[in-house]
Write a structure and sequence with these properties.
Keywords: ATP-binding, Ligase, Metal-binding, Nucleotide-binding. The chain is of the alpha+beta class and 285 residues long. The protein has helices spanning 12-23, 67-82, 92-99, 101-110, 124-133, 157-169, 224-237, 266-269, 276-284, and strands at 2-6, 27-31, 37-41, 44-48, 56-59, 87-89, 118-121, 138-140, 152-154, 174-178, 185-192, 195-203, 216-219, 241-248, 254-260.
Length: 285
Amino acid sequence: MKVTILGSENAWHVEALIGAFQKRGVVVNVLRAKEMKAFIKDDIACPGVGTDIGDVVLVRSLPGGSLEQVIFRVDLLHVLGEVKDVEIVNSPRALERTVDKMYTTALLSRAGLKVPETYITERYEDAMTAFKELGCDVVVKPLFGSEGRGMIRVTDPETAHRVFMALYQCRYVYYLQRFIPHEGNDIRVFVINGRVIAAMKRHSSDWRCNVALGAEVSPLDPDTSIVDLSLRAVEAVGAFYAGVDILPSKEGELYLLEVNGIPGWRGLQQVARSDIASTIVDAIL
C-alpha cells in the first residue's frame, strides 16, 4: 500500500503521520499543494507527481492562493477520487464544506445544531446593520482561516466602522457572529470515523481559547451530550475525521463554533490517552 500526504514534509503533523504509516509498513510520499499536476490524453486523466500517487491521499494542507490555484487543487482531488479511484481523506466535498465558515455554519444549522447568530455579506452598509442587529457585540472572522487568527471582537460603532471599512478596502467578505458570553474556556473534540477518540478543554484569559494563541489545555471526558453533538456535527459536513469546537455559554448552552476538516492535534496530544496520528492511520487502513 502507498499513501501520499498532501502537506509540508517538515510539518509536525505530517512527520507524526509518516512515522505511524511507516511503522505499519506503508510507503509514504509527501507532496506540496503547488506540486500537484495532471495530464489528460485520450479521455484519461492522469493526476500525479511523476510517480504513482498511491491508494490514499491524506490532505494535511490546502494553502491559499489565487482563485484559479485553489479551484485547481480541490478539483484535482475530485479527479483523483472520481477518475483514479484514489481514496481522499478528507473527501474534497468535506474539505469544501469545512474550509468555508459560511458553508459549515449553514450545514450545522440545517442539521438542527445550535450555532451563534451569523451574518455574511459583501456590503459595508449591510455589515453595519448586522452589527446593530447582533447587539453591537460581534466576532468578526475571516471566511477562511483557523487557529483563531484574524478574528476580532467589535463592541462599539466607531470600531465597527473602522474595521469594516478596512475589510471593504481589501475586498473581504464580512462574516459576523453574535458574541456568546462564556467562562473563558471552550471544548475541542476529535472525531475519527464516527467515534470520539479524544477531547480537551482550552482555558484562556482572552475571549479566544485557541492553543495557537496561548490557551492552556486539560483533558476532558466528554459526556453524552458533547459526544452526540460532535458526531452530528461531523456527519453534517460529511467528514471522515475532524476537530469540533464547542463553546459552553455562561447559561450552560452548547454552541458549535467550527468543524475543522484539516484538524490539528498537537495541543490535544498533550492530554490524549492514545497516539492520535496512529489512530488516524489505523482508521484509514
